[in-house]
Amino acid sequence: MIEQNLLLILVTLPFLGALVAASLPVNAHNAAAAVSGLVLAGALAILAALHPAIAEGQVLRASLDWVPSLGLGLDIRLDGFAWMFVTLVAAIGGLVVIYARYYLSKSDPVPRFYSFLMAFTGAMMGMLLSGNILPARGLLGADLDPVLPSWSATGTRRPQRATGRGRRSS
């Protein structure tokens, strides 16, 4: 029972961190980094707590009724392979948080970046822990959705290409 609750917390924790980071003011650089770092440290702590059961070869499962009228449920499973990849996602996400904390400028919308990072991390974890294909497909699309708008919303313009048309020769 405790393992099931930890699995559910592990899946929802990055999304909660994304909501908290998104609600921070634009100039809250340290707070956004701290929230994101604590979320990923919490995820790594949960994974460390689940490691003894995984090392024994157990497959941990949790299930929630998603759309009961259609018989659809949200199944979460964690085996050794998924544990390794979810640990990699959380650890690499933590390294990105540390790097971005010192790399991003004061004029950048840092809380928005960390919000997208946490949403991406949550989508990756959810996809890796999904026990059936329908939520995994939804999360596979969700892992790119927060990233793509951020590239176009940076306030920079693309240089215009020279087409060769309309050139005047003197």
Summarize this structure briefly.
It contains 6 helices and 2 strands; from the N terminus they run H-H-E-E-H-H-H-H. It has 170 residues and is mostly helical.
Walkthrough of the structure:
With 170 residues, the chain is mainly α. Helices cover 64% and strands 9% of the residues. It is built from 6 helices and 2 strands, in the order H-H-E-E-H-H-H-H. It has helices spanning 2-23, 29-55, 80-103, 110-129, 133-142, 147-152, and strands at residues 60-67, 72-78. A two-stranded antiparallel sheet has the order 1-2. Strand 1 and strand 2 form a beta hairpin. The N and C termini lie far apart (81 Å). 28% of the residues are buried.
What strand order characterises the main sheet?
A: 1-2
Beta-strand share of residues: 5-15%
pLDDT under 50 segments (min length 5)?
150-158
Q: What Rg, in angstroms, do the CA atoms define?
A: 20 Å
Distance between the termini: 81 Å
Defining key terms:
mainly alpha; 170 residues; single chain; globular; two-stranded antiparallel sheet; 6 helices
Protein topology:
Elements (H helix, E strand, L loop, with lengths): L1 H22 L5 H27 L4 E8 L4 E7 L1 H24 L6 H20 L3 H10 L4 H6 L18
Antiparallel strand pairs: 1-2
